[in-house]
Amino acid sequence: MAGKPVRPTNAIDQTRRMLSLVTYLRERPGARIEDVARAFGITEDELVSDLDVLPMCGTSFRGGDLLDIDTDGERIWWHNPAALGAEAAEPLRLAADEATALLVAARAVSTLPGLREGDRQALLRATAKVEAAAGEAAGASARLSVTFESEGGVFADVDRAISERRRLWIRYYSPARDQVTEREIDPIRLVSVGHTYVEAWCRRSEARRTFRLDRVAEIKILDEPSAPPEIELRDLSEGLVQPAAEDPEVVVEVGPGGRWVAEYYPHDSADELPDGGLRITLRTPEPASLRRLALRLGRDGRIVSPPELADSARRAAREALAAYDGIEARGAADGPHAVPGEQPGPLGESRIDGREQGQ
């Protein structure tokens, strides 16, 4: 809904809301989307997102007993509440693989750094009950473990900061600038679009920014309260990167080996070239970030415009070649080495011969 203020949210809040939503919809067949969203204090887009998840929930992941919920865009229909109600009245029975998956996941989550102690203890108590009920089926789970990457700790701290409405201090690596900066941010929400991100109000830039969790080098939860301004949440159904019409235009030409660029980068047009390549026109708020793309493409692509960006990519390629040449020159005493040079590309562009950067 346009103009609706941002509400801090996290995975725990969403889970609680969805559990309440099941009860609410059971008692209100054909409920209107706008009425349900208003009742739960969320946007219609958030509600639809919840409805996309609910059909994957039920008394088992084996299928046949999942929530049969759908919407026609105006109303919400639950087609099998009676059947699930009958099953819910019976004792829950877990198969061995179900018990193993549940116990391994529960133990892994309980080790997350930053998890609130009350939540950790509640999870451990629930895990013990499942373990006792599973009997011999629980034995396999004790021989399995899951180790979270460093992003897990960042996720836990961000989730906690959102829940407690506290500000964060982060050291963040920006690949576009190839530098690490320190920032204070007011976290708004966690989003997952390929990678996991936190959408936040950045106090350094005084603007909304999105930070990828695996690029956070260091994080601290501050005592200051989080107070992001009232801004409308973005619709991310079209992807995290949504170029604006006013963003600078960049033209890239790629050969057959670089056609993947059109699949991974939002673009305005992709015209076929005689050699089987593409001429791709796209927009980005930070054109300099495409220098890395040019280096990665190597002989498979080049930046055509704007001219200053094309010049910058050429300089970056030459500097990379010089660095390689210097390394090979220092190692010449160990034996002969072939020293690659630059090859002129179409329209006078120079590229790195046979070297793909950034792989």
Describe this structure in words.
A hairpin with a 1-residue loop joins strand 5 and strand 6. Helix 2 crosses helix 3, helix 5 packs antiparallel against helix 6 and helix 9 crosses helix 10. The protein is α+β, with helices and mostly antiparallel strands. The chain has a five-stranded antiparallel β-sheet, covered by helices on one side. A four-stranded antiparallel β-sheet has the order 10-11-9-12. It has a three-stranded antiparallel β-sheet with strand order 1-3-2.
How would you sum up this structure in a few lines?
By secondary structure, the chain is of the alpha+beta class. It is built from ten helices and 14 strands. The chain is globular and about 65 Å long.
Beta-strand content: 15-25%
Number of strands: 14
Strands of the largest sheet, in order across it? 7-6-5-4-8
Fraction of helical residues: 25-40%
Structural class: alpha+beta
**Tally the helices: what do you get?**
10
The sequence of SSEs as H and E is HEHHEEHHHHEEEEEEHEEHEHEE
Give the mean pLDDT.
Answer: 75
Alpha carbon gap, first and last residue: 41 Å
Could you give the topology of this structure?
Blueprint lengths: L10 H16 L4 E2 H8 L3 H10 L15 E3 L3 E4 L2 H9 L6 H15 L6 H18 L16 H14 L1 E9 L4 E15 L1 E8 L4 E6 L3 E10 L23 E6 L6 H4 L4 E4 L5 E6 L7 H7 L3 E5 L1 H24 L11 E3 L5 E3 L7
Antiparallel strand pairs: 1-3, 2-3, 4-5, 4-8, 5-6, 6-7, 9-11, 9-12, 10-11, 13-14
Helix pairs in contact: 2-3, 5-6, 9-10
